[in-house]
Amino acid sequence: MGDAGDPGLSAGGIDAAGVADEDAASELCPVCSTPYDSVSLHDRGLLVNLLDNERYRRVCFEPVERDGRPHVRFFHHTHEQVGADD
Ligand SMILES: [Zn+2]
Fold first, then answer.
1. Which Pfam families match (predicted)?
2. How far is the CA of 35 from the centre of ligand 1 (A)?
């Protein structure tokens, strides 16, 4: 971290709900190196419950900095994307 900014991150595409669909289907999750379905950015705590989620198998969390404030990026993986390697 430090003052190197966050290369690779775009400030665009974030709606009022703090969800960013960056159309990054060809990219890999920085946490588990697995393709992900969508990314969201959060600047406060929230509850995640995937026990009964039919679409997503898991969500990885990556801490990032935006405008000097801590945020967390969520990488949503579908059951198909996690699939056989987990
Ligand atoms: Zn992941």
1. DUF8145
2. 7
Q: For 83, phi and psi rounded to 5 degrees? A: 40, -130
Higher pLDDT, 84 or 80: 80
Residue type, 1: M
27, 73 contact by CB (below 8 A):
no
Q: Which residue has the tokens 């600047």?
A: 43
pLDDT in tens, 19-69: 555 554 468 999 999 999 999 999 998 888 888 889 999 999 999 999 999
Ligand 1 centre distance from Cα of residue 16 (Å) = 24
